[in-house]
TrEMBL record:
Ranges of Basic and acidic residues composition bias in the record: 125-139
Spans annotated as Disordered: 117-139
InterPro entries, A to Z: VWF_A, vWFA_dom_sf
A Pfam family reported for this protein in Swiss-Prot or TrEMBL: VWA_2
Gene3D superfamilies on file: von Willebrand factor, type A domain
Protein name according to UniProt: VWA domain-containing protein
SUPFAM superfamilies: vWA-like
Domain called VWFA: residue spans: 182-280
Organism of this sequence: Halalkalibaculum roseum
Length: 370
C-alpha cells in the first residue's frame, strides 16, 4: 500500500487546533475505508506512517498510538470480537465513516466539483426560480413576483388611484422535490484495483455519503445498494465500509436486472439507477452457468445488457452510468447502453465522481411546478 503523505500533511497544517485524538482519528478513518474496515490493517498502516513521518512527535504530553487505541475503545469506536478474537469497528464508526464521506464530497463540491448542474443542497420542499408566470387560483402567494405584479398594475393605473387586477398578478415558478427511489450499483470486478489505481475506495465513499444524505435529509426517499461481479447481490448500508474487490468478471446484465426488480417493489414517483463501473460487461448467467468473455465486447453479452436497459426504460427507470475509466474502447458500449435506456452517461474522474452523482441525485428529485 502506498500513501502520498503530503496530502494528509496539508490537512494537518489546517487543523492544528485539533486534539491529538481528532488528528489521528481523521487519518485513521481514511485508512479504514481503504482497508475495507480491517482495523488491524489500518493500525499497521498508521504505525508505518507514524514511524516514517513522526506524526505523534508533534503532540504534547507524549500522546502516542497506544493512547489513541485506548481512546478508540473508550469512545466506543472499536471493540473486540470474542468469537474470532479480533478487533472490529462498531456501528458508531460505520456511521462516522458515512458522515465523513458526506462532508468530504460537499467540501469538494464547494471547490467547484463537476460544474454542470446546480449544487444548492440546503433546500427542502419548494425552491423559487427566477422565471415568472401569471398567477392562477391555488398558487402560493408567498411566491409572488412583487416587481412584475407592480409593473403590470401601473400600466392601467393613474397617479390618483392604483387599480390592481387579477391579471396583474405574477408568481415565480418553483421546483418541487418529489420522492425518489434509487439503486446504486457498484462494480467490484478485479479491474477496480488494476493498473495501480484504487477505484473502489472513491466508489465506496460516494455510496456511504449518499446513504447518509438520504438517511438524514430525505427520509421519504429510498436507497438500495447492489454490488456486482460474477453475480449481483444486495448490500446493506451498514456493510458499505467492508466492500472489497474480488477476482470477478463484470455481470452488468444481472446487476441491472436486480436493480429493476428492487424498483418494481418501490411505490415512488421517480425511479433511477446509478451505476459506477470502470469496465465493459464480461459475463452473464445462462441456464445456471456463467458465460464469460474478457476479450473485447462480446456481442452476446452486450445484447443481454442492452435488453435489460430497454426493460428499464419501459418501466420508466432511468439509468445513469458513471464510467470511471477513460478507455475510448468502452465509449461505444456506454453510448449504446445510454441510447437503449434514454438515460445519461458521464466519463468522470475519481475526484469528480461524488459531485456528479450528488448533483444528478438532487436534480432528479425535482419537478417543475407551474
Amino acid at each position: 500500500m502506498h500513501f502520498k503523505y503530503q496530502e494528509w500533511d496539508d490537512r494537518f497544517a489546517r487543523n492544528k487546533g485539533q486534539s491529538p485524538f481528532d488528528t489521528l482519528w481523521d487519518l485513521f478513518q481514511e485508512l479504514l475505508t481503504v482497508a475495507s474496515g480491517d482495523v488491524s490493517q489500518a493500525l499497521r498502516w498508521l504505525t508505518e506512517l507514524d514511524e516514517q513521518y513522526g506524526i505523534t512527535d508533534q503532540f504534547e504530553d507524549g500522546y502516542g498510538l497506544g493512547d489513541f487505541v485506548e481512546e478508540l475503545e473508550e469512545r466506543g469506536y472499536i471493540e473486540t470480537d470474542t468469537d474470532n478474537n479480533t478487533v472490529i469497528i462498531t456501528r458508531k464508526t460505520e456511521r462516522s465513516l458515512r458522515q465523513r464521506s458526506l462532508e468530504e464530497i460537499f467540501r469538494n463540491l464547494k471547490k467547484g466539483g463537476a460544474g454542470r448542474h446546480k449544487t444548492n443542497f440546503t433546500g427542502k420542499g419548494l425552491e423559487r426560480q427566477p422565471e415568472t408566470r401569471p398567477w392562477k387560483p391555488g398558487d402560493d402567494i408567498s411566491h409572488m413576483d412583487s416587481v412584475g405584479t407592480m409593473m403590470n398594475m401601473l400600466k392601467h393605473s393613474n397617479i390618483d388611484q392604483f387599480n390592481l387586477q387579477e391579471d396583474d398578478l405574477r408568481v415565480h415558478d418553483t421546483d418541487h422535490y418529489t420522492s425518489v427511489s434509487t439503486v446504486l450499483l457498484i462494480d467490484l470486478s478485479h479491474s477496480m484495483i488494476l493498473y495501480g489505481e484504487d477505484r473502489i475506495t472513491p466508489a465506496k465513499k460516494v455510496a456511504m455519503a449518499l446513504s447518509e444524505l438520504i438517511l438524514n435529509d430525505y427520509a421519504k426517499d429510498s436507497l438500495d445498494i447492489v454490488a456486482f461481479g460474477n453475480e449481483a447481490w444486495k448490500v446493506n448500508i451498514e456493510d458499505l465500509p467492508y466492500l472489497k474487490v474480488g477476482p470477478y468478471h463484470t455481470n452488468t446484465q444481472q446487476a441491472l436486472e436486480l436493480a429493476r426488480h428492487i424498483l418494481q417493489r418501490r411505490k415512488f414517483a421517480n425511479k433511477q439507477i446509478f451505476m459506477i463501473t470502470d469496465g465493459k460487461p464480461s459475463c452473464i448467467i445462462e441456464n445456471g452457468r456463467m458465460y464469460k468473455n474478457s476479450f473485447g465486447l462480446d456481442r452476446k453479452i452486450v445484447n443481454k445488457v442492452l435488453d435489460e436497459a430497454v426493460k428499464c426504460r419501459r418501466e420508466k427507470i432511468d439509468i445513469t452510468t458513471f464510467m470511471i475509466a477513460r478507455d475510448p474502447y468502452l465509449q461505444d458500449f456506454v453510448r449504446k447502453l445510454t441510447e437503449a435506456n434514454k438515460g445519461r452517461a458521464y466519463f468522470a474522474s475519481l475526484d469528480e465522481l461524488g459531485g456528479y452523482i450528488f448533483e444528478d441525485y438532487i436534480r432528479n428529485r425535482k419537478r417543475r411546478v407551474r
